[in-house]
Amino acid sequence: MTEKVNLVINGINIETVAGRTILEVAKEHGIYIPTLCYLKDVNEIGACRMCVVEVKGHSHLFPACNTKVWQGMSVETDSEKVKLSRQFVLQLILAHHTVRCLSCCKSGDCDLQKLATEFELPTVNPYSSDDAKLPSKTDNPFLAYYPELCIGCQRCVSVCSRRVGNGVLNASKIGTRTFIDAPFGQDWKNTECELCGNCATVCPTGALVAKNMGKYQTGNVNRVLTTCPHCATGCQFYLMVKDNKIVDVQPAEGPSNRGLLCVKGRFGSFNFVNSPDRLKHPLIRNRETGEFREASWDEALDLIAMKFGEIKERYGADSLAGFACSRSPNEDCYMLQKMVRCAFGTNNVDNCARVCHSATVAGLAMTLGSGAMTNPIGDITNDVDLIMLVGSNPEEAHPVIGMQIRQAVARGTHLIVVDPRKIRLAKDADIHIRLKPGTNVAFANGMINIIINEGLADEKFIRERTEGFEELKEIVKDYTPEKVAEICNIDVDQLCEAARMYAKAKKAPIIYCLGVTEHSSGTEGVMSLSNLAMVVGKIGKSGCGVNPLRGQNNVQGACDMGALPGDFPGYQKVTNERVVEKFEKAWNVKLSRKPGLHATDVFPAAVRKEIRGLFIFGEDPVVSDPDQGHVIKALESLDFLVLCDLFMTKTAKYADVILPGTSYAEKEGTFSNTERRVQRVRKAVTVEGEMRLDTDIFTDIMNRMGYPQPYLRADEIMDEIASLTPSFGGISHKRLDAGESLQWPCPDKNHPGTPILHTEKFARGLGLFYPAPYRESMELPDDDYPFILMTGRVLYHYNAMAMTGRTPGLVEKSGSSFIEINTEDALRLGISDGDSVKLTSRRGSVVSKARVGDKVSVGETWMPFHFSDAFANVLTNAVLDKFARIPEYKVCAIKIEKAEE
Ligand SMILES: Nc1nc2c(c(=O)[nH]1)N[C@H]1C(S)=C(S)[C@@H](COP(=O)(O)OP(=O)(O)OC[C@H]3O[C@@H](n4cnc5c(=O)[nH]c(N)nc54)[C@H](O)[C@@H]3O)O[C@H]1N2
Ligand SMILES: Nc1nc2c(c(=O)[nH]1)N[C@H]1C(S)=C(S)[C@@H](COP(=O)(O)OP(=O)(O)OC[C@H]3O[C@@H](n4cnc5c(=O)[nH]c(N)nc54)[C@H](O)[C@@H]3O)O[C@H]1N2
Ligand code: SF4
Ligand code: SF4
Ligand code: SF4
Ligand SMILES: [Mo]
């Protein structure tokens, strides 16, 4: 029982509980106390003394933000003494503050300015001092620090260390004054600052600011609440719109980001919208000359309908295919798959999940019955005992989740990192299992072997909730710790210790990503992790589960919307006759019962002339699919390629028709983030040009190909989705606009959504153990190609860089490719850090720069796939996982030679 406390504030009797601060209690009762340095839970240092109050019987004043209430106290928040003290404090702060409100971008939004007005300060400040000025730091492209406006409140320092978990800001004293060592000066590129801007968000004055703020006056812009268009964390932010132009982004308190953003959301999510490179008109390519010319919408759409119609008639509907854009809203993806199914007449529809988390969708559906993240982000990063992070680099790929993991670790959560590379979080890990790439299945089987042998399995859970345990037990018998240590090239004791820690922890989520899925054994890797969680009963519970961090902002949604070859919306199977009949009735069309081709099978099929017409909606496979040479050959083999994108991408060059798409900032809709949370995307601007909504383009094509489809608004499309998809039955724009936050399954209008899956029973009834043996990666190093190459991403750029590449500051910070090589290997090859190196695989060669160190192990290398100076996918191997058809991006063999400069 928490102890009750009675107190009086400004004559009002209040009952509360012990342990709360005066400020909290006052606020709860509508009593205003001004603050300046205070930030709840983050900065409660009582430094600025603005929040002082009088307590009866005491001669000195108390800071309300960090004084706990006590029985019988009587507080005055507004007495003359308090007012005088606050005025004095403000004058002292302003004594060192260069009052230049007219030229300060924070004017109108500055806490200090507001308080100065509120406390009616005299025009002449008797404490004014002319102390030494420190230089401003303005070299950073996004952020600036003006010491003469700094009040030393330390909010920025606390946010960087306690919420962002980066700790690069420090307070320094010069004389009696506090300044911030802001990493925004000349050497900004070489600091550890991640440019997230969360420090600027909380600065109460104009001292530490995002430079974008200089482009507008607060109060003179429209704020449009929307969802970040990059990764699937699903951060909420406001687009600040001035005269139909987005000038800035400010974070919002969304359920997954809680006021934080990363550099891409904060600074990289709007320059591209108004980029002069945007496609503004339909373009038609002359196949003879390769030249594109502008065309009218009618001409382009007629041509598409005619060509696709001809192919369909001559070679059958299954010679057509369409890819959906996982960067675009649910409503767009739904209409794209409807176009492919109803107008093209085939199930050859897919999305980039194929090359990303298709192994998750297949693997978790087989074992648990639902291929989605089991628990919400907040639930697995707050108050858990241990996090097991497998093949996931959230500090770069899901930075706002990474920040929450850092916070958890700082609060004492244990961390096991399972990754071949020394990712930054590995430094803070209790155990870093630095396994050989491609050996996840052996690792998981080894963990299970130890857990069973040491009596750490949850027998009750296994008995009541699962099936197939005996088969699993049989197979993992062979995976003794010694054998696994050898396969994975790790330490036996470390493995045993990790198994014990994970099994014994009460709340312990597994969080994983592409280090698990992007292998020829990707689906088995995923199923091995769900085996592991089920053996210890850590699933269907708060703070536990098997949690794939989905990649693209709406890749969860693209899958949910049925942009999959075997599934209608909501994973209703195309092989289920009852389901097909339901959709035939609703869509009033005869539908194919034959599961379609996976995206990764479409390219080989194009080379074989089995696929002849392809519609690519917002993907850049020339950059992002494995074995670039093969992709280009496939695209060139097509009879007709249509592309709908925002930019003239590398893939667009091969298209017969290019249609200009609309970006997330120009349309209404919803994205579903990695935790199955459906969130609104709102129109902020109109871009000049002959733009049409993507959904209208699909409707145009459907109508021209003979399938009558009325033009629908995004909210109407969502209503159609809800009417046909049981797990979306209760989701509507209306509910979301009313402020509800819904995670599917949400079967009806009164359902609150489902944060945690599989609580009572698994979506498939019993959880299935899938016994997976370890198989080697398809292409291992040999004498000719002696190094393993892994590929992945860096913080500052996103996939093929269509969007982040159009923010100059991001390119300045990180603008070209590199390959991580171990120091020992580099020494042997005579390569130094920064040298140009020629990288060759059985598919091709590129020239990149060596980054020498110990981030990768001996014999292993790693490079990002974003950069056009050395596309990693020239090198990668297009072999596929047999269940999900996902490519082995994470392991191929290369040789390295020193290149001429
Ligand atoms: N900044 C940025 N963020 C992004 C993206 C981006 O392009 N840029 N893309 C988004 C997309 S589409 C996705 S899918 C996600 C991906 O997010 P992540 O999967 O977290 O990112 P990756 O860098 O591809 O790979 C993650 C880790 O897998 C490790 N790894 C490689 N091989 C193995 C292995 O065999 N076993 C294990 N255990 N680990 C291995 C690598 O060392 C790497 O640290 O990121 C999303 N977020
Ligand atoms: N070597 C290697 N390769 C990889 C990976 C790896 O780890 N290693 N990861 C793979 C993964 S996980 C993924 S997800 C893929 C990603 O591969 P892609 O999906 O090809 O990459 P993006 O850069 O996200 O491309 C999205 C395109 O959509 C366009 N676009 C965005 N929004 C809209 C819209 O609303 N409408 C229209 N019409 N267009 C829009 C953008 O302009 C951009 O050109 O890459 C894969 N490739
Ligand atoms: S931008 Fe982010 S990482 Fe850099 S100092 Fe500010 S809070 Fe810290
Ligand atoms: S820079 Fe801003 S947040 Fe940081 S100490 Fe100075 S005034 Fe406070
Ligand atoms: S973490 Fe992902 S969703 Fe959040 S701001 Fe960064 S890129 Fe956007
Ligand atoms: Mo992805």
TrEMBL record:
List the NCBIfam families. Answer: Fdh-alpha
Q: Which GO terms describe its cellular component?
A: membrane; oxidoreductase complex
What does the record give as cofactor?
Answer: [2Fe-2S] cluster; [4Fe-4S] cluster; Mo-bis(molybdopterin guanine dinucleotide)
CDD domains noted in UniProt: fer2, MopB_CT_Formate-Dh_H, MopB_Formate-Dh-H
4Fe-4S ferredoxin-type domain sequence ranges: 141-160, 184-213
Name its GO BP terms in alphabetical order.
Answer: ATP synthesis coupled electron transport; formate metabolic process
Q: Which residues form the 2Fe-2S ferredoxin-type domain?
A: 3-81
For this entry, the protein name equals NADH-quinone oxidoreductase subunit G
Q: Which InterPro entries match?
A: 2Fe-2S_ferredoxin-like_sf (IPR036010), 2Fe-2S_ferredoxin-type (IPR001041), 4Fe4S_Fe-S-bd (IPR017896), 4Fe4S_Fe_S_CS (IPR017900), Asp_de-COase-like_dom_sf (IPR009010), CT_Formate-Dh_H (IPR041925), Formate_Dh-H_N (IPR041924), Formate_DH_asu (IPR006478)
Identify a single GO molecular function assigned to this protein.
molybdopterin cofactor binding
Q: Which stretches are annotated as coiled coil?
A: none
Record keyword Metal-binding present: yes
Chain ranges of the 4Fe-4S His(Cys)3-ligated-type domain: 81-120
> Looking at the keywords, is Iron present?
yes
The record's family statement is: In the C-terminal section; belongs to the prokaryotic molybdopterin-containing oxidoreductase family. Belongs to the complex I 75 kDa subunit family.
The 4Fe-4S Mo/W bis-MGD-type domain covers 221-276
Q: Which UniProt keywords apply?
A: 2Fe-2S, 4Fe-4S, Iron, Iron-sulfur, Metal-binding, Molybdenum, Oxidoreductase, Repeat
Note the Pfam families from the entry.
Answer: Fer2_4, Fer4_7, Molybdop_Fe4S4, Molybdopterin, Molydop_binding, NADH-G_4Fe-4S_3
Please describe the quaternary structure of this protein.
Answer: Composed of 13 different subunits. Subunits NuoCD, E, F, and G constitute the peripheral sector of the complex.
